Amino acid sequence: MSTFLVSLAILIVGYFIYGKIVDSVFGPTDRPTPAVRINDGVDYMPLPTWKVFLIQLLNIAGLGPIFGALGGALWGPSVYLWIVFGTIFAGAVHDYLSGMMSLREDGKSISEVVGMYMGPLMLSIMRGFSVVLLVLVGTVFMTGPAMLLAKLTAMDFKIWLVIVLVYYFLATLLPIDALIARFYPLFGICLIVMAIGIMGGMLTGVGGHVMPEMTFENLHPKGAPIWPLMFITVACGAISGFHSTQSPIMARCLKDERLGRPVFYGAMVAEGIIALIWAAAGVTFYDGTAGLSASLAKGGPGGAVYDICVGFLGSGVGATLAMLGVIACPITSGDTAFRSARLTLADWFNVPQQTWAKRLTFAIPLLAIGGALSQINFNIIWRYFSWTNQTLAMIVLWTGAVYLYQKLDNKMASLVAAVPATFMSVVTTTYILQAKEGLQLPTSITYPAGFVFAALFLGLFLKATFMRGSNN
Question: Measured between alpha carbons, how far is 432 from 451 in angstroms, rounded to an integer?
């Protein structure tokens, strides 16, 4: 229990100390935000800060800090280290920079921001990359809930899929204060309450379960290597490129630049806390990784969530929260994924989105593609999403490093983003070289190759920034 509490404390302290350092490096000002200057009544409009925070949390979270954390817990309590330090030094920095860069660039989509600082080639890559990722996210988060609803009711999976698609259609088109700002804060509160309830059950020893202490031993039942599989599996619980596609949505609703730290950095720390709780719950409730593995194999992560909620919170409240978590949370991330895809395409082709007709131009084909992809094997889509997700995070961190270098006199400030960008370069390249959906090379090749690629990326960054600056 003590290592869990220490990890929790480090996350909270990290927000106040390192979050403030990152905020000071960026330097928020009194300049009017896009929500104030543009305010089109659809996507740009000032919202109360507490609403913006809860919407941002729900947009970036979904089931990521639950399903990803349970998957990461298969390696044992060592996953705490990645969740804690990954959140503070990588994930929260990524979310903050993506949100604040968008804020400074009129709330533009992350692909457009990347293009401004990384060049036209990267702009073209990022536009396609972002749209593909967002459609994959929307597909994953429409298929999962529809499958679960079909199991819980007498209605067919395809009927539920159509219902979810209709909802996504409305949430993608309507002004942001019509559905998202009205209901998402409530679901965000439920996500937090569920995590607090689970933590309370663990700390008070409900059911006689004992929280294990930290160990660096690989406890994966199948002996899967920690590096880099655990870092990709945890995904949203530590860092996620998907978040950078969501931050611009709230960058268009923020009233003051100084609110960036609590909204962007703070929402990621909150997600890290939720992930830490669920990782601990996975190894605690099942009394080890073997029991957790058996549960995931039998009922999937949704079944494990249900068991843990009922076990720690009781059949009434626990079952209700479990269903809310595994159904409502992914739906509320899926719809904003399609909304963000619409905005990305609108920025790409410079099409204003004030009228229904122009919004329909992008919404209809996006949702049609998502519906078609939902017929493909769910596990295949998820595997490609995981790697694409982390690769996008790496690209955005490198963009943040370039932005900080160009905009600030203190060039060392760019290392705030360059260091985690280098680390994520190692993770993503190593993974795709050895993964089933990649080149399937042996670790004797992938491990050194990952570090070589990361060193190359870092060298190119230093050459384009520090070395060039010293020669001028």
Answer: 13
